[in-house]
Design goal:
homodimer; alpha/beta; TIM Barrel; 2 domains; eight-stranded parallel β-sheet; 10 helices; 18 strands; globular
């Protein structure tokens, strides 16, 4: 295969990336963070790509976030040198891998329990106190527990990296006013945690959190010092359904599909189904906006509407939720208009351990 | 890594396969089909594994089904020699790949439109008339259209492989009585299609269809001559929620996960979320049955209940829907009790084009 070749020749379903649009998104977020004196540490669970992580760092990011050790290992092996792990690592095998990775790159990890912290003694890994914002996914659940864990980190001879406070449930609240009210309430609680740490004489170098839905509000509120935004580089249908604040971002990620059946009036069948889109956030939308999508099983979807493409025609769709959709594909095809100009591997695809 | 090693040492989330249970499922379905004089052509979209496809063939299957060309190419490259493609191939690029594949293996494909049939002239690919059972995903939509397409196949100098009639919407009807009533109605329509073909003097060598939810009823009804069952080799939560008929099958597929946070009474967080389970069919269940699962984002899930595992403990889950869940993983870990005895690649993972 030699590049460029016509987009129409690409076998479908295929994941397409407009690198120019993505680069504009990367630059816009970097400029936003810089103007407000905030560190930027984009979340690589969105893209799982070494190429994209390195572009984010080149544009000024302090490093990246990874959700899983396997993701961090894959990206570190491709030259990403500063990674923060946003999920606790708790097993003996995981702790051993974490220590090995810390020998290769600058590494930090969250904790919400003293047992894994004790196991990290002597590793040189910086440890963040993960604070539960109320969703009860991970994190300590009170200011007192945050202080106790920070003391356990010091007692293990480890460096406190800071505090992580990620409000996942607030990112997709549809209206900006409702989202602002929700995140303002959560941040009031975070202030009590930080006050308890300060009262205990504990220095907190970094307060990390935020997502594409709340980063502009978080920046106004002035408590976070580092932004973990992920989806802004691509956008997706779920974020397009929200009233976002801050710089405006462009859609940079698409799935191209092909009509494989057109025997029923008012609908056609395309070659992208449950194995081509993550379904947790509903359905994709067509880029043209002229038809409604419905899942039709593992391998197919339907387009329903009045102005429909014909048999063997191409259709471009916006994924409902970018992160788990990217995780279905082995590579990004780089698109410039009607040409495919290259491809990048989804470096850490499936690296969920 | 050398086998065997303790199951507790496997990094999670991990896809586990009990080969002994799967082999019993394969043998039970093969015996069922043989006793009724039916051909068996299991659907490989469920497992995407060359090892499993070859075991199904060794146990008496006529060949396998694939949903996509890419899946068929990947399995053919590993020695699977007889494949039926259950989705139409309609683009010039797809037709070229189909012709190339037909030079390597015994191959058939469905069609529901004369244009791709004409493009296949001279290829030696056997073509099946795909008949829409009413869901309007693919297939011709009337007996007259079936006759016209069979004539187009003959006019192109191609061999009619038979008729495909797959009732996807009926597979998961919860009660056997309701499912029997639904599939009996659909089969009455299939009889009218076959009668029209017979009246036109067209010989139909194979009538292929059925799934794990309906195969036993289809066998009773006596119209299908070949069964395309897929999920019976593994089972999943979705099929376990249905009243199945025919031989009883065993759960052979699992996801092992680890508790990474346990700070909130009545719940713990595990390391398997939207990237570890397909979500189209709801939530997984725990093998122990002692806790309820809830998705908690891309990378985590919650277990909610009274008897919960502790921090760093293992949890075994049954996937909600096996096919798209398998497609998330690079390999099956082969499990015998508490030992991991080997691994098999998910040969055609992500091969959706």
């Amino acid at each position: 295969m030699s590049f460029p070749f016509p987009r129409a020749d690409l076998p479908t379903p295929a994941l397409l990336l407009d690198v120019a649009a993505m680069d504009r998104n990367i630059a816009a977020m970097a400029a936003f963070a810089k103007a407000r004196g905030l560190a930027l540490r984009p979340h690589a669970k969105t893209h799982k790509s070494a190429e994209i992580a390195l572009r984010q760092v080149a544009a000024g990011a302090a490093g990246i976030c990874c959700a899983k050790l396997g993701e961090a290992e894959a990206l570190a092996a491709c030259g990403v040198g500063d990674i923060h792990l946003t999920s606790p690592v708790v097993t003996p095998g995981g702790i051993a891998r974490l220590k090995a990775l810390a020998g290769m790159i600058r590494l930090s990890v969250v904790a919400d329990h003293p047992a894994p912290v004790a196991a990290l003694a002597g590793s040189g890994v910086r440890v963040f106190v993960d604070v539960d914002p109320g969703v009860h996914r991970t994190g300590v659940t009170s200011p007192e527990a945050a202080v106790a864990l920070a003391r356990a980190i010091a007692a293990a001879g480890l460096t406190l990296g800071g505090v992580q406070f990620y409000c996942g449930s607030e990112q997709h609240i549809a209206t900006l006013a409702d989202r602002r009210a929700a995140i303002t309430g959560k941040t009031a609680y975070l202030r009590t945690v930080l006050a308890a740490l300060a009262a205990a004489g504990i220095d907190v170098p970094v307060v990390t959190g935020a997502g594409t839905g709340t980063f502009a509000i978080d920046a106004e509120l002035g408590v976070l010092s580092e932004l973990q935004v992920g989806s802004y580089i691509f956008l997706d249908r779920e974020y397009r359904d929200c009233e976002l604040a801050g710089p405006s971002f462009e859609q940079a990620l698409w799935v191209d599909s092909t009509v494989i059946s057109a025997n029923t009036p008012g609908m056609v069948t395309i070659d992208a189904g449950l194995k081509s889109f993550a379904t947790d956030a509903g359905v994709p939308i067509t880029a043209s906006g002229t038809a409604r999508f419905a899942f039709m099983g593992d391998e197919q979807g339907a387009l329903i509407g009045e102005q429909l493409p014909g048999l063997a025609d191409r259709v471009t769709l916006v994924p409902p939720h970018c992160d788990p959709t990217v995780n279905l594909y082995d590579c990004y095809w780089l698109v410039e208009g009607d040409a495919i100009t290259g491809s990048w591997p989804v470096t850490a695809r499936g690296r969920s351990t």
